Amino acid sequence: MTLPETAPRPATTTSPVLRVAPASPAAAAAYFGASLAFHADVSDVAAALADGGEPGFVVLDSRSTASWDQGHVPGAVHLPTALIPEQAEQLLDRSVPVVTYCWGPGCNGATRAALALAELGFQVKEMLGGFEYWVREGFAYETWEGPARQSADPLTAPADGDDCGC
Questions:
Q1: CA–CA separation, 56 vs 84, rounded Å?
Q2: How far is CA 50 from CA 24, 30, 54, 147, 157, in A?
Q3: The sheet that has 39-41: what strands, in order across it?
Q4: Segments of the chain assigned E as strands
């Protein structure tokens, strides 16, 4: 017997999403907990810096001088990744956690900087989204010409408030 063309066919394969089964809840909790130990969100970094008090960490821009001049997070320390081994000890306090960033999600410069710092004994996190998402979420930044700010991109930040509810 053949089924009419309009009748639904039974599924013969699992969806691409579930081809590999989800992790157990315990494994997922361990993985996502570890992820938060290694990463910081642009909005969380901005909120901590805007609080007015001591945020408990230092922000490090690991890009080139030309990139730094083009725009950087206010108050960040500029230390290109290649210079970390020779200059980190003079510029950073080993007792203060460091949050690294580079251009954006398509760049692993912040990851390389975080690795270099961790190998020197610093506590470190990587700021997800980098400078790109700092700007796209509408946070103020500094350039060689002075302060700057762009409107928040509604695809990356709430259009009508500061809290995305995450």
A1: 21
A2: 38, 30, 10, 15, 17
A3: 39-41, 124-128, 98-101, 58-61, 77-78
A4: 39-41, 58-61, 77-78, 98-101, 124-128, 141-143, 146-148
Give the dihedral sign, CA 34/72/45/83: positive
Average pLDDT, the chain: 90
**How far lies 11's CA from each of 14, 15, 39, 53, in Å?**
7, 9, 39, 57
- Sole residue written with tokens 């203060």: 96
Using CA atoms, how far apart are residues 97 and 39, in angstroms rounded to an integer? Answer: 12
Query: What are 78-88's pLDDT values in tens digits?
Result: 999 999 999 99
Q: Which amino acid is at 140?
A: A
Please state the pTM of the whole predicted model.
Answer: 0.85
Say what the pLDDT of residue 60 is: 98
